[in-house]
From TrEMBL:
SUPFAM superfamilies: S-adenosyl-L-methionine-dependent methyltransferases (SSF53335). Keywords: Methyltransferase, Transferase. InterPro entries: Erg6_SMT_methyltransf, GPPMT_Stmyces, Methyltransf_11, SAM-dependent_MTases_sf. The keyword Transferase applies. GO terms for molecular function: methyltransferase activity. The lineage of its organism: Bacteria, Bacillati, Actinomycetota, Actinomycetes, Kitasatosporales. This is Methyltransferase. It comes from Streptomyces kronopolitis.
Amino acid sequence: MTTVHADTARIPVPTQSTYQTRVADYWNAEENPVNLELGKIDDLYHHHYGIGDADRTVLDEPDPGRRRERLTGELHRLEEAQAQLLASHLGQLSPADRVFDAGCGRGGGSVVANLRYGCHADGVTISAKQADFANQQARKRGIDDKVSYHHRNMLDTGFTSGAYAASWNNESTMYVELDLLFAEHARLLRRGGRYVTITGCYNDTYGRASREVSLINAHYICDIHPRSAYFRAMARNRLVPTHVQDLTQAALPYWELRKEADHLVTGIEDTFLTAYRNGSFQYLLIVADRV
Ligand SMILES: C[S@@+](CC[C@H](N)C(=O)[O-])C[C@H]1O[C@@H](n2cnc3c(N)ncnc32)[C@H](O)[C@@H]1O
């Protein structure tokens, strides 16, 4: 029997669940200084965390205004290092290639890929406001002929199958079911294409999600997956890991410094530090080939 719902015609575009609408509401309303003030420095807007050793001498700056400025700059440098690390794993890309930035935020990751490889990029976000903002930035930079952002669901993009040489999720996998996500990446990537993710995941060896992991879920309205779930879902969706890197230790200096930045803190800093230090949470880079 075929059942046709009377309200089929009212399904919103992008197709999304009530949960996804709440996630979109969150990102449409989001104006955190830690995202906006850092981005303003060079118009590279990242909504992810940073990696690498921090220059903590910025904290010794006696002038309060200058101290704030140097702290903001240093956090941005660490976020930029994270974006560059991800981009460095996208494979051999040429200017003719196309990449897919799943859950693209205000667009920094696609700009980084375009500047590095000259490639075309399609960013997708469930937030209409983010997509508009990112497209404005691309126009301002004069790269809008190659880089575009779309208000769509990354689980169901409608883009052409096999059209992409590389794709990634930078801190956006925790909003979706991994099997649905990886099925869409596998569909979009050409054979031999590259998939990369940097993500927080809970550590299976801890047992289940810790109190801190649950607090992070509540803070961002997300659902952090265990590390094991990534590899199972990749194996089921033609994505074969070629490189895995535990970035947990490399992530600590960023959070330790951010905690000191009174003008940028969001209140979740100590929770991240505890989660990383008690072994319940990991910051992971996974690189996979589409076979
Ligand atoms: C933490 S931000 C990361 C943004 C970006 N990747 C970056 O590194 O700057 C999470 C992003 O995932 C997006 N997102 C969450 N669920 C989504 C979905 N189902 N489809 C598309 N985007 C989604 C949000 O709109 C937001 O842009």
